[in-house]
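Fold Annotation — chain and its backbone
Next Lines — sequence and tokenised fold

***
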Amino acid sequence: QIKREKPENIPDLKYLVKEKFTALESKNSDSDLQRNEKYIYFKDQLKEMRKQFCHQSGNDNEAIEQIDEDIAVTQSQMNFICPITQMEMKRPVRNKVCGHTYEEDAILKIIQTRKQQKKKVRCPKIGCSHADVKGSDLVPDEVLKRAIDSQNKK
């Protein structure tokens, strides 16, 4: 359409895109989602998991408790993962300013590299707004270290 028009008659592109998007959006419906093969597969897997949990335990409450326990364990294990290395921490340090933990070597290496570049270090934890991490802000997180060690002994 733009190629056919004269340069002085260029249409409002934002309006045209918005119009096209609205037209496409109005074609989408919940019935399309119900027929989507990935959505159907996901729902089937959920049903299958629910069946397995209900067979394993006599009643639904036990099944729900088991799922909750699995989620709690998964969340605590997630806290053992360094946001920088994406590996389990061996020497976790906690940032006194924002409270996030990292693998000591990894965060110190970042601080050193950024210092050489004369730049500040942003907290590598996604969503954190702390924009000036310093080595002096870091303290060993003994509680987390003990939790990781005891988890690994199990």
Q: What stands out?
A: DSSP finds six helices and three strands in the chain. The helical segments are 13-27, 30-35, 37-56, 60-78, 104-116, 142-153.
